[in-house]
Amino acid sequence: xxxxxxxxxxxxxxxxxxxxxxxxxxxxxxxxxxxxxxxxxxxxxxxxxxxxxxxxxxxxxxxxxxxxxxxxxxxxxxxxxxxxxxxxxxxxxxxxxxxxxxxxxxxxxxxxxxxxxxxxxxxxxxxxxxxxxxxxxxxxxxxxxxxxxxxxxxxxxxxxxxxxxxxxxxxxxxxxxxxxxxxxxxxxxxxxxxxxxxxxxxxxxxxxxxxxxxxxxxxxxxxxxxxxxxxxxxxxxxxxxxxxxxxxxxxxxxxxxxxxxxxxxxxxxxxxx
Length: 273
Description:
By secondary structure, this protein is an alpha/beta fold. The protein has helices at 8-11, 15-24, 45-58, 77-93, 115-135, 152-161, 173-178, 184-192, 223-232, 253-272; strands spanning 3-7, 29-32, 34-35, 38-39, 61-69, 101-104, 138-142, 167-171, 196-201, 203-207, 210-214, 238-241. It is 44% helix and 21% strand. The radius of gyration is 18 Å and the shape is globular.
């Protein structure tokens, strides 16, 4: 029905262990974000060569490079320059894994964003988008609650401003809910679906006013309705576990398996009906 994947460090920082576990669950698609404690764009060349070898031997498909570009302060030009170099590194790395998608964010969240602030945010997003167009790669923009663009309404504003074939969406309804989107799944999805290239799944709730990540199926995201909507729209990309949920004392395997099982249960329900 769907291609299911996982961000490797949701399972383990040890890439070999993460891949072995993912394969034991029948998964074929992975994302590279943090490996042995470093972002994939920050590892040295020897480590990168080792990662390439491990992935090649595993037969896993790398869907995207989860770079951290523009996960920085909006008004810090020195940090901005470093992130442009980070972008260039991700563009160098992606084809080594036969991938063409690198991730983009929208700076750390500003307070009281007005039209002037939006103009500033978009002005600084121009360069990464132009670089992506020049280099022929896809920027997978991910909506997050810690950034300035988190809800489906924010994303509508983003894609109304930028009309680029090299800017696509890594849609995360859990992040959208955490950012204040009251019904990201499936209502918010309807506003952004034409831009989606990849989907992340995580579940979430607010308990005593505090955001809490939960196993898929245990929070506020209506994943059954959302997956039915994706199925209706013939979505053929990957749905990847990036849950952030952690059981006490667990470093990832048991927690991510709980979310994997929750996702599989929902998919089974859809298939049966």
